[in-house]
Design goal:
The chain is an all-alpha fold. It has helices at residues 17-25, 29-42, 46-58. Helix 1 (17-25) packs across helix 2.
Amino acid sequence: MAKKLYRSRRVRQVSGVCGGLAEYFGIDETLVRLGVAFATIATGVVPGILVYLAAVIIVPEAPAS
């Protein structure tokens, strides 16, 4: 069965997008959050925020287990 990307129910600060990415790639969620923060600042803030909001809308929440 293929891995699927979900927003995390376990590791969430805002909506679980960074936690879901960390679980999907098997890395520490702090590294993902730092990467997202750096990318958001590097792109001029607004594009980063829009991409994050799009991920909140598009990526489904993990099923309850």
